[in-house]
Amino acid sequence: MTQAPLQSTPLALIGAGHTHLVGLRRWRDRGFRPPAGSVLINPDPEAWYSGMMPGLLAGRYQPEDCAIALEPLCANLGIELVIGQLAELNADQRLLRLDDGRQYQAELLSLNIGSSPACLLQDGSLPVIPVKPFATLYRQWRLWRDGHAPVNLALAGAGPAAFELALALQASLPNSRISLIGSTPLLARHPSTLQRRALRLLHERGIDYQLDQLTGIRQGRLLLASGIELEGFDALVLATGAQPHACQQTSGLRCDPLGFIAVDSCLRSLSHSAILASGDCAKVPDSHHCGVHAVRQGQTLADNLQALLCQQPLQRYQPQSRTLALLDTSDGRALLSYGPLAAAGRWARWWKTWLDTRFISHHRIQ
């Protein structure tokens, strides 16, 4: 097999996550064009907006409402869109190998490749559907909706994504019994009043919440850390905490103990000054993994990539001490939390819809 020729690029953006989308739009708004030959590498020709996935599964949105076509945005900035999956990264040489064998060497590199649900020991006896990539979950949901719905469906996770998806699946698959299994209290980062309201909502919709850690699957049974084995499920949706991609840990980049890329407050790698990382793939000081932080990192990332290309000083990213969370409950309402504050209502869902659709429309280029 002939090895693909090595292609050189002044700038490689890996992944069309929220941070890169915001950064590209900022460049367009400010009239900055990256050097000729710059590339954006992404597995798909569109970027899915994760905040709208529960609404899509609940039937409020169509797929085209939740995705941003990348080609128009890239073309507007003179960036080549490369469809491919990052398979290997050599940080010392800034060398990228894609899953189809194509290779790129970048002078400046930015990673915004997200994360994946934590791996699960299993014997293949039960279908397991991770929440990422979203397109895979959506295709499976369509099969369920169109007549192959599971009688008993388990979800693993205790965060906002798992909570919203459980309610969305219950609303769109009314003949399926939904069970949620979490290793921590439900919505542990949110105010206790919101946690209680969320648990009450699950109970009202007939969704069980089991506080236990899912450790594996054997012979169709879900194995829990307590020693309990749950049986009778037809499928499992995996919405557990973020896990870094394997290519990060073998790249030579300095990572935190969990394997996320360690960066400074300028979003630059602590070990390789010509590599930046943002969003869920990175460990950003004083920040945690969530969509709000990924979006807010976008302007700083764009400015710092431009600064490095123009040999100018970098700016620091200042995370908010409080972040707004709006959780769709698939009944025309939403839950809201901001620091210690919690609320709920139709107005909160309206606010969430407005924010989500504004994000999509702002980053689309016709």
UniProtKB/TrEMBL annotation:
Residues 77-292 form the FAD/NAD(P)-binding domain. Its cofactor is FAD. It comes from the Bacteria. One of its GO terms (molecular function) is NAD(P)H dehydrogenase (quinone) activity. The keyword Transcription does not apply. The keyword Oxidoreductase applies. InterPro entries: FAD/NAD-bd_sf, FAD/NAD-binding_dom, NADH-Q_oxidoreductase. Keywords: FAD, Flavoprotein, Oxidoreductase. GO terms for biological process: aerobic electron transport chain. This is FAD/NAD(P)-binding domain-containing protein. It comes from Halopseudomonas phragmitis.
